[in-house]
Amino acid sequence: MKQDMIILLDLGSRNNSAIARGIRDLGVYSEIHPHDITLEQLSRLPNIKGIIINGGTNNHIDGVKIDVDHRIYKSGLPIMVVNHEPAEGEHIIANWPENDQEISKVLRSFVFNTCEAVPNWNMKNFIEDQVELIKRQVGDKKVLLALSGGVDSSVVAALLLKAIGKKLVCVHVNHGLMRKGESEGVLEVFKNQMDANLVYVDASERFLNKLAGVADPEEKRKIIGAEFIRVFEEEARKLEGIEFLAQGTIYPDIVESGTKTASVVKSHHNVGGLPDDLQFSLVEPLYHLFKDEVRACGIELGLPATMVYRQPFPGPGLGVRCLGAINKIRLEAVRESDAILREEFEIAGLDKKVWQYFTIVPDFKSVGVKDHARSYEYPVIIRAINTIDAMTASIEPIDWPILLKITDRILKEVPYINRVCYDLSPKPCATIEWE
């Protein structure tokens, strides 16, 4: 890595991600590491210019207060200690101000005045680093990429094509949980237009059978993640020289899947769902990027804006939007209502304004009236949010006539639905997805 770096050591703070993002916004690379990293491990990280030891409310494990390796305080590196009682050694003690502007001032002073870091964090340098690292890791072997067609996997594909060219084999798995027309679109863009080395696998029945009767969202995610790996292993056995699995894992996936000082928000299929007997070595070039940085990377790589700014879609797909145990009636209701929502948002120009929007169908019914008779059917819930880095999210206010039109279409066109609701919950306390 050519960039200077500031390290955050996590002592249970809830604002680690925001601080890391704030440092990167200054043009200096930053990473979050667990509190128990050793001085030896720390010394192997490249170009460290300073350390922030960031305390917080979750600074206990099993009732015991945690601290960093005490030798780090005497490492000779500039250290800023926040909301924590430090051990002896040279350091700056600070508290985070109440507003973002003041926090930026504190960070700017520490990063540039104290650490004398150079603002050389940019996507051009990042791509050069990753291409070099990928070449070194992969050598003359082949890489299998799970290509969903979403932003993350598309940017990974572009990076790998730049680094290893035809040694990349893309596999698109239709797990039966895709949005309407999604798999067809992936085949059109990547196989027909981009001439990628693409294998298409229709495993929809296989996934749905595995998920039959499974209601717990964590279990669903892990089943989907594990089954993905099995499909890739089967496809890899049909090829020669496949030793690596590439994934579009990004930083929010890692943060939300939990660390020693942070509870699990939800396990991501590409983090918490990987089996212990994984047959591949992983290639994850976006591992330390936030979502907006992934998009910037895609633009720098020359991907079209329509692909880079495509609406995010979770790896488990509609499986986490068909709440509870999945059945085909509710799954189809999610798929059709989502298609209506996306169509109407595009007509209204909201597709360029709203970061993510989708529908959910829960596993309960309500009484209604259809065709002058009692109905007992499912509701559809609409969610539309805006965010920069997927760590926090705000609700997008939608004009009433647009919501009424969407509601009318869903109630008329989607079978087994008799209510439409709008979710007004920001993140936090809610997450972006319901499961």
From TrEMBL:
Question: Entry's Gene3D superfamilies?
Answer: 3.30.300.10, 3.40.50.880, HUPs (3.40.50.620)
Q: Entry's PROSITE patterns?
A: GMPS_ATP_PPASE
Q: Which pathway does it take part in?
A: Purine metabolism; GMP biosynthesis; GMP from XMP (L-Gln route): step 1/1
User: What top-level branch of life does the organism fall under?
Assistant: Bacteria
A GO molecular function held by the record: ATP binding
GO CC terms of this entry:
cytosol
Query: Could you say which EC number(s) this protein's record lists?
Result: 6.3.5.2
Its keywords, alphabetically, are: ATP-binding, Glutamine amidotransferase, GMP biosynthesis, Ligase, Nucleotide-binding, Purine biosynthesis
Q: Which residues cross the membrane?
A: none
Task: Keyword check for ATP-binding, yes or no.
Answer: yes
Per UniProt, residues of the GMPS ATP-PPase domain are 121-310
KW Zinc (keyword) present:
no
Q: Which residues bind ATP per the record?
A: S148, G149, G150, V151, D152, S153, S154
Q: What class of enzyme is it?
A: ligase
Q: Which Pfam families match?
A: GATase, GMP_synt_C, NAD_synthase
CDD domains, alphabetized: GMP_synthase_C
The protein's job, in short, is:
Catalyzes the synthesis of GMP from XMP.
What the entry lists under NCBIfam families is as follows: guaA_Cterm, PRK00074.1
What is this protein called in UniProt? GMP synthase (glutamine-hydrolyzing)
Species this protein is from: Desulfitobacterium dichloroeliminans (strain LMG P-21439 / DCA1)
